[in-house]
Amino acid sequence: MTKIVVIGGSAAGPKAAARARRLDENAEITIIQKSPDLSMASCRDFS
Ligand SMILES: Cc1cc2nc3c(=O)[nH]c(=O)nc-3n(C[C@H](O)[C@H](O)[C@H](O)COP(=O)(O)OP(=O)(O)OC[C@H]3O[C@@H](n4cnc5c(N)ncnc54)[C@H](O)[C@@H]3O)c2cc1C
User: Residue 8 falls within a domain, yes or no?
Assistant: First the structure.
Protein backbone atom coordinates (compact mmCIF):
# COMPACT_ATOMS: atom_id res chain seq x y z
CA MET A 1 0.00 0.00 0.00
CA THR A 2 1.26 3.44 -0.94
CA LYS A 3 1.55 5.84 2.01
CA ILE A 4 1.29 9.55 1.22
CA VAL A 5 1.82 12.38 3.71
CA VAL A 6 0.69 15.88 2.72
CA ILE A 7 2.03 18.75 4.84
CA GLY A 8 -0.37 21.71 4.74
CA GLY A 9 -4.18 21.62 4.71
CA SER A 10 -5.22 24.94 3.20
CA ALA A 11 -5.71 24.96 -0.61
CA ALA A 12 -2.88 23.04 -2.31
CA GLY A 13 -2.62 20.28 0.32
CA PRO A 14 -6.21 19.01 0.22
CA LYS A 15 -6.15 19.41 -3.56
CA ALA A 16 -3.05 17.20 -3.78
CA ALA A 17 -4.60 14.67 -1.39
CA ALA A 18 -7.80 14.50 -3.45
CA ARG A 19 -5.79 14.02 -6.63
CA ALA A 20 -3.74 11.26 -4.98
CA ARG A 21 -6.98 9.54 -3.87
CA ARG A 22 -8.30 9.65 -7.46
CA LEU A 23 -5.03 8.16 -8.72
CA ASP A 24 -4.84 5.44 -6.06
CA GLU A 25 -8.03 4.46 -4.21
CA ASN A 26 -6.06 2.23 -1.86
CA ALA A 27 -3.35 4.68 -0.84
CA GLU A 28 -3.09 5.67 2.83
CA ILE A 29 -3.24 9.48 2.66
CA THR A 30 -2.52 11.67 5.70
CA ILE A 31 -2.82 15.46 5.73
CA ILE A 32 -0.80 17.18 8.48
CA GLN A 33 -2.17 20.65 9.19
CA LYS A 34 -0.61 23.13 11.68
CA SER A 35 -3.66 25.35 12.19
CA PRO A 36 -7.05 24.08 13.49
CA ASP A 37 -8.80 24.84 10.17
CA LEU A 38 -8.69 22.55 7.12
CA SER A 39 -9.26 23.92 3.58
CA MET A 40 -9.56 27.47 4.91
CA ALA A 41 -7.75 29.76 2.41
CA SER A 42 -6.83 33.36 3.38
CA CYS A 43 -9.16 34.98 0.84
CA ARG A 44 -11.85 36.18 3.19
CA ASP A 45 -11.38 38.76 5.93
CA PHE A 46 -12.65 37.15 9.18
CA SER A 47 -12.27 40.29 11.30
C1 LIG B 1 -5.34 38.47 2.37
C2 LIG B 1 -5.37 37.45 1.27
C3 LIG B 1 -6.40 37.48 0.36
C4 LIG B 1 -6.42 36.55 -0.68
N5 LIG B 1 -7.47 36.60 -1.54
C6 LIG B 1 -7.55 35.66 -2.51
C7 LIG B 1 -8.66 35.64 -3.38
O8 LIG B 1 -9.58 36.46 -3.28
N9 LIG B 1 -8.70 34.69 -4.32
C10 LIG B 1 -7.72 33.75 -4.46
O11 LIG B 1 -7.82 32.90 -5.34
N12 LIG B 1 -6.64 33.74 -3.63
C13 LIG B 1 -6.56 34.67 -2.67
N14 LIG B 1 -5.49 34.68 -1.83
C15 LIG B 1 -4.43 33.69 -2.06
C16 LIG B 1 -4.82 32.31 -1.48
O17 LIG B 1 -5.26 32.46 -0.14
C18 LIG B 1 -3.54 31.46 -1.53
O19 LIG B 1 -3.14 31.36 -2.88
C20 LIG B 1 -3.79 30.05 -1.02
O21 LIG B 1 -4.20 30.11 0.32
C22 LIG B 1 -2.50 29.26 -1.16
O23 LIG B 1 -2.79 28.01 -0.67
P24 LIG B 1 -1.62 27.00 -0.31
O25 LIG B 1 -2.28 25.75 0.16
O26 LIG B 1 -0.71 26.88 -1.48
O27 LIG B 1 -0.76 27.71 0.81
P28 LIG B 1 -1.21 28.24 2.23
O29 LIG B 1 -2.57 28.84 2.21
O30 LIG B 1 -0.08 29.07 2.75
O31 LIG B 1 -1.34 26.91 3.11
C32 LIG B 1 -0.26 26.31 3.73
C33 LIG B 1 -0.84 25.55 4.94
O34 LIG B 1 0.21 24.75 5.48
C35 LIG B 1 0.16 24.80 6.90
N36 LIG B 1 1.50 24.56 7.36
C37 LIG B 1 2.61 25.31 7.16
N38 LIG B 1 3.69 24.73 7.71
C39 LIG B 1 3.24 23.56 8.27
C40 LIG B 1 3.87 22.50 8.99
N41 LIG B 1 5.18 22.53 9.23
N42 LIG B 1 3.12 21.48 9.42
C43 LIG B 1 1.79 21.44 9.17
N44 LIG B 1 1.12 22.41 8.47
C45 LIG B 1 1.85 23.45 8.03
C46 LIG B 1 -0.33 26.22 7.19
O47 LIG B 1 -0.99 26.23 8.48
C48 LIG B 1 -1.31 26.48 6.03
O49 LIG B 1 -2.63 26.12 6.40
C50 LIG B 1 -5.41 35.59 -0.79
C51 LIG B 1 -4.35 35.56 0.13
C52 LIG B 1 -4.34 36.48 1.14
C53 LIG B 1 -3.22 36.45 2.14
Answer: yes
